[in-house]
Amino acid sequence: MMQSMISRLKAINLQTLVMAGAIVAIAIFFSIATEGDYLTARNVSNLLRQTAITGILAIGMVFVIVSAEIDLSVGSMMGLLGGVAAILDVWYGWPLPLTILATLAAGLLLGAWNGWWVAYRKVPSFIVTLAGMLAFRGILIGLTGGTTVAPTSEAMGIIGQSYLSSTLGWLIGCGCLLLLFGTTFRGRQQRLQHGLSAKPLPQTLIGLAVAMAALVTLLYVLNDYRGVPTPVLILAGLMVLLAFVANKTAFGRRVYAVGGNLEASRLSGLRVERIKLAVFALNGLMVAVAALILSSRLGAGSPSAGTIAELDAIAACVIGGTSLAGGVGTVFGAVLGALIMASLDNGMSMLDVPTYWQYIVKGSILLLAVWMDVASKAKR
Questions:
Q1: Per the CB 3.0–4.6 Å rule, which of 244, 265, 315, 317 could disulfide with 366?
Q2: Among 10-19, 125-134, 287-296, 324-333, where is mean pLDDT lowest?
Q3: Residue 378 — pLDDT band, cuts 50, 70, 90?
Q4: Are 42 and 302 in contact (CB under 8 A)?
Q5: Cα–Cα distance between 349 and 43 in angstroms, integer?
Q6: Is residue 318 a contact partner of residue 370, using CB atoms and an 8 Å limit?
Q7: Which residue did the predictor score with more confidence, 104 or 185?
Q8: Rounded average pLDDT over 121-130
Q9: How many CB atoms lie within 10 A of CB 214?
Q10: Domains of the chain: which residue ranges?
Q11: Is the separation of the CB atoms in 280 and 68 below 8 Å?
Q12: Is the pLDDT of residue 331 over 90?
C-alpha cells in the first residue's frame, strides 16, 4: 500500500514537470512564431485572464471526474448563469452583491439538480448532463429571447475587467510565498516526526526557490502592464482552497475513495449518494463563479456564451493527469492543463490559425491525453 502511494506521488511529480515543460515549449514556439509578441506583458496578462475561466471550470470538473462521473452541461450552465447575472444587472438593476449571491445560489441548485438525478435516481451522469446541456441552453435562449443582454454596469465589470494595484499585488504575492514556505516545512516536519520519508532538505529548498522565482517573475510581468487581473486572483484563491479540500479534508478523501472503488466505499459506511450530490453541487458553484467572470469580461449575457466550454474543462483535467476512470487527479494539475489549453488558444489566435484547425488541434490533444492515461494503466 505504501509502495503504491509513493509510486503514485512520483508519477504526479513527473507529470507536473512534463506539463511545466510543455508550457515552456509552447511559450518558446509561439514567441518565435510571433516575433516576441506572445511573451509581452499585455499578452501574458490576457492569456492568464483566458485561463481563469477554463481553470475555474476545471477545478469543479476535477472533483466530478475523480468521483468517476462526468458533467457535459457546464458550458450551457455557464451560459445560463451568465445570462441570469446579466439580466439581473441590466434589466432589473440589482446591486452587484445581490447579483453575485443569486448567481452563486442558482449554480449551487443547478449542480445539485444534476447530482440528485445521478446519485438518487441512478441515471448515468453522461445522460443527465447531456440533457442538462440541451435544457440549460434552451432556458437561456428562452430567457433572453435569443438576444444579447447588454451592456452590464460598471460595478459588474469589476469582477472580470479590473486589476490589482502593483502594491497590493506584491503584498498578496509575499503572503502566498510565506504560506507556501510555512506549509512546506510544516508538512516536511510532520512526516519526519511520524517516521515517514520526506524529500531531502536541499531538494525542498530548490523547489521553493524555483516557485519563488516563478512568482516574482510573473508579478513583475503583470505589473509591467496593468497589474494582476482580478479573475487570476480568484482562480488562484479557488485553486488553493479546493486543493486543501481535496487533500486535507475528510470530504476530499471520501471523493477519491468513491471514485477509486464505489462498492468498497459503500461497504465501509460512506454515504456515496450524499458525496456525489455534494460533488455536483460544488461543480455548479464553480460554474457560477466562471459565469460571473465571463459576463463581466464580455460586458453582456449572450445566448451562445459557454459553447463547448465543457470540452475545454474536461480536456484540462485529463491533460492535468485526472483519470476518466475516477480516483486519480489533482486540482493543481487541472489548472496547469487549463493553462496549456489557453496557451494553445491564445497562440493560434495570434497566428490567425483558422478556427477549424484550432478545433482539430485541441481535439487531437484531448485524444492523445486520454490514450496516454489508458496506456499508463495498461502497464501497471
A1: 315
A2: 10-19
A3: low
A4: no
A5: 12
A6: yes
A7: 104
A8: 97
A9: 11
A10: 1-44+308-350+358-380
A11: no
A12: yes
